[in-house]
Design a protein that fits this description.
single chain, 13 helices, three-stranded antiparallel sheet
């Protein structure tokens, strides 16, 4: 409210720049007084009844409401309003407490709007709530001389338990998406692992096939030398040279014994063992038997030419020798396997003959 002039407390007053004065004549509204100095020659007749601020004001409000799905929420909002100078008389005479009146209308409009909407709708689309409150409140406040500038919804907060439940729903939804993604990743991993295993087995089969082919060609070449000195190495015990089949058997036993994972229980002393470098289990068969050498037809006929040298050598003998060689290759693989258990075999030269008879009997039925 404006200040009185020192020279005359009854007839002169000043009104601030952000205010408008209400002038009464004989206790009846007469006119609006602008900012500046106002003089009243007859104070008993004309006087300044009061002033109203023309500044924009803000009214914060917090209220509770229930949504359509029976969830109680707390709404915090703010109303900004300003005096309509043309309707200042209504604002001065019709309202005794403008803030209380605005709060009453505002709470009523918020509750009537929220009760028709679901909780998710209130959260996702606050513009509907703001529009309804602004339209209704603007009409009411205009009748009392005020203009509604803006309605700001700051926060919509449900009850604590409802808030936790909403967080749990969102957490579970995201976990479901994460689980699906993880399952797809595991599926892809299993498929790729299966494809890798398939390729590994294919390459292993190719390698095993080439190894067997090289072994057969090597046996064919070895039999040529074996036939040439078969009579010398088998007829005269004084020569100290053992048959090549028994030598290969001893080589297989030596390879099996050298592996740290197999526990060998031998029936003969180690000093009686003989070592001959005739192991056919080479790492790379291409170094000994290149693919181009394997495919040459003349090499295949070596065994046929050697077979005619000595009548005592038969195809059956060659097959038995191959079976024994494969048998000792199997024993070598068992010894190199981490999960291999202890096995008991004999290592004397006589054991080779019994093994040959057992293997031949098993295949011949």
């Amino acid at each position: 409210m404006g200040a009185s002039c020192p020279c005359s407390a009854q007839c002169c007053v000043t009104i601030s720049a952000d205010e408008v004065g209400i002038v009464e004549h004989w206790a009846k509204f007469h006119n609006l007084q602008g900012a500046g100095l106002a003089c009243f020659p007859f104070p008993c007749m004309c006087q300044l009844a009061g002033t109203l601020s023309t500044r924009q004001r803000s009214l914060p409000l917090s209220t509770e409401a229930k949504t359509k799905d029976n969830v109680f929420i707390e709404v915090k909002l703010e109303v900004q309003y300003v005096l309509n100078k043309n309707e200042a008389m209504n604002a001065f005479y019709k309202l005794s407490n403008v803030e209380q009146q605005i709060c009453s209308y505002l709470k009523n409009e918020i509750r009537s709007t929220i009760c028709t909407r679901l909780l998710d709708e209130v959260y996702n689309d606050r513009s509907v709530l703001i529009a309804n409150v602004r339209d209704r409140l603007s009409e009411v406040m205009a009748a009392y001389g005020y203009i509604l500038v803006a309605v700001l919804v700051h926060e919509v907060t449900p009850a604590a338990k409802v808030f936790q439940a909403m967080n749990s729903i969102e957490t579970l939804r995201r976990l479901r998406v994460a689980t699906l993604d993880q399952a797809e990743a595991e599926k892809l991993l299993v498929v790729k692992r299966a494809e890798g295993e398939m390729e590994r087995k294919r390459l292993s089969g190719v390698g095993l096939s080439r190894q067997r082919m090289a072994l057969l060609r090597g046996m064919e070449m070895s039999m040529a030398h074996f036939i040439s000195d078969a009579q010398e190495t088998s007829a005269d015990p004084a020569t100290g040279v053992m048959p090549r089949s028994k030598t290969m058997a001893l080589d297989g036993l030596e390879a099996l014994e050298a592996d740290a994972q197999a526990a060998m229980h031998a029936y003969a002393r180690p000093a009686n063992r003989m070592r001959m470098p005739t192991d056919v289990g080479v790492e790379d068969t291409n170094t000994l038997f290149p693919p181009e050498a394997i495919s040459q037809p003349p090499l295949i006929g070596v065994g046929q030419q050697a077979e005619g040298l000595v009548d005592t050598v038969r195809v059956r003998d060659v097959m038995e020798l191959m079976l024994i060689t494969n048998y000792f290759d199997m024993l070598k693989d068992v010894g190199q396997n981490d999960s291999a258990s202890t096995i008991y075999i004999g290592n004397s030269p006589g054991t080779v003959g019994s093994m040959r008879r057992e293997i031949a009997g098993a295949f011949s039925g």
